[in-house]
Each structure stands twice: as C-alpha cells, then as structure tokens.
Amino acid sequence: MTDIGWGNLAQYEHYGRVGDIKEDFDIISYEDSKGELYSSFKHASHAMLFARNDTVLWDLYKSRAAIMMQMRFDGLLGFPGGLVDPGENPLDGVNRELEEEIGLDLCKHKLQNSDQVVSFVNKSKNLVLHFYGKEVTVNDFSEIEMKTLSAPDYGNETLGMIRPPLYTMGDGYRGLPAFLSNSYAGNSRQELLIGLQHFKILEQDEIEKTRR
Ligand SMILES: O=c1[nH]cnc2c1ncn2[C@@H]1O[C@H](COP(=O)(O)OP(=O)(O)O)[C@@H](O)[C@H]1O
Ligand SMILES: [Mn+2]
Ligand SMILES: [Mn+2]
Ligand SMILES: [Mn+2]
C-alpha cells in the first residue's frame, strides 16, 4: 500500500515508515533550542502529565504512576502536544496544544518553562522537539482525563487517552515491555523512557530491562 501523500505534513514527515530512523535524537539545551541556530527549524512540543499512585494490581504489580498518553490520528502512540505555530514559543505551543487535544484547564495546570524536561533535534524530520513533564495529584489526573472526552480535537486528532502499564509481568514481556513494542509517533517512545527516569518513576535497571 503506498502512502496516499502527506499533504502539508510533507514539510517534515520526510521518511516513510515509523521507526526508520530510530535514534535520531540529538539533545540540545532549552536555551540553545530557542536561539538563532534553530530558528529556521520546525518546532514541536509535547508533554507528559502524570500522577504517582501506589496501588498494586492483584498484590503483584505496582502501578507506580498514571501517565497520560494518546492514540493519535495517525494510528501511533504519542503524548499530547504538537507543532509550535509561527511566532509562538515552544511553551505557548504546548499549552495551546494541550488545551486543543485534551482540553487542559490552563488556569489550573498551565505548564511553565521549569516543566521542560528535554529538548532535542530530530534531523531527519528537520524538527526541534521539546518535551515537558508535570506531576499532578491523582484527583487532578482523573479530572483532566475525564475532560479529554470533550476536548476540541477529541475524536479526530486525539483518538483516546491511554495509561501505559509500568510493571513487567511474569513472562518478562507483558506490561511495559509489551506496551513499548507498539508504534510511536516521532521520538515519543524515547521521551516516555526519559520521563520515567527523570521523575524517578522507574529506576534505571527497570528501564534497562525494557530495552528491546
Ligand atoms: O509524542 C510525541 N513526542 C515527540 N514527537 C512527536 C510526538 N507525537 C508526534 N511527534 C512528532 O512531532 C510532529 C508534530 O506533532 P503532532 O503530530 O502532535 O502535531 P499537531 O498536534 O500540531 O498536529 C509529528 O509529525 C511527529 O514527527
Ligand atoms: Mn494538535
Ligand atoms: Mn497543531
Ligand atoms: Mn499533536
């Protein structure tokens, strides 16, 4: 089946298949990312909203945290967020996209520059990507999650929210490793692992276990 064309996405969706260029992920500082050097790049910002939670499934599997990810219009998993519009800065972009895609109440949960976790260049896509992360309470997480159903982009760009399982089950595969074997948009798979480590939701050795 050939691609039916990228339309206006062609400007940055250069390569054809997901995962063609796995490790195209050059970390840069947040400051540099907003400088002259990258002003000609397309920028995109995505965010990981999460709430720690110590429930244990069947006295076996620690939930650890609820993480908000989404099934996207392109059939790939990713975080809420999107392209930074011309004249917008990456932070305004992510707040606008979160309002569009999950109906985030910016009066309560607006992201700040201090919520930036990592910025990197995906050369093959001519994209600078900014990844933000913010911890909320379990109640706030549920409230945000409930509201996603009435978000402007719900049902077209955003096809439903999911919470990745963060435990590994007895066969060493089901749970997080199985989740990680799905297809991801852009570098969202790497971002998830970075977010889990950055916020100490998973220890390094647990993350190593999930690497393919
Ligand atoms: O969760 C993500 N993390 C990092 N990059 C992503 C994620 N989802 C998509 N991308 C990449 O960023 C680009 C723009 O993101 P997205 O498709 O969300 O824009 P939009 O919401 O403005 O339509 C996509 O073409 C893809 O390459
Ligand atoms: Mn969007
Ligand atoms: Mn957009
Ligand atoms: Mn998006």
From TrEMBL:
One BP annotation, GO: sno(s)RNA catabolic process
Cofactor needs: Co(2+)
Domain Nudix hydrolase: 40-209
Major subcellular site: nucleus
Taxonomic path: Eukaryota, Metazoa, Spiralia, Lophotrochozoa, Mollusca
EC number: 3.6.1.64
InterPro entries on file: NUDIX_hydrolase-like_dom_sf, NUDIX_hydrolase_CS, NUDIX_hydrolase_dom, NudT16
Enzyme class: hydrolase
Gene Ontology cellular component annotations, sorted alphabetically: nucleolus; nucleoplasm
Keyword set, alphabetical order: Hydrolase, Nucleotide metabolism, Nucleus, RNA-binding
Molecular function terms from GO: 5'-(N(7)-methylguanosine 5'-triphospho)-[mRNA] hydrolase activity; IDP phosphatase activity; phosphodiesterase decapping endonuclease activity; snoRNA binding
A Pfam family matched in the record: Nudt16-like
Subcellular location: Nucleus, Nucleolus; Nucleus, Nucleoplasm
Reactions accelerated catalytically: IDP + H2O = IMP + phosphate + H(+); a 5'-end (N(7)-methyl 5'-triphosphoguanosine)-ribonucleoside in mRNA + H2O = N(7)-methyl-GDP + a 5'-end phospho-ribonucleoside in mRNA + 2 H(+); dIDP + H2O = dIMP + phosphate + H(+)
Record's protein name: U8 snoRNA-decapping enzyme
Family membership noted in the UniProt record: Belongs to the Nudix hydrolase family. NUDT16 subfamily.
UniProt superkingdom: Eukaryota
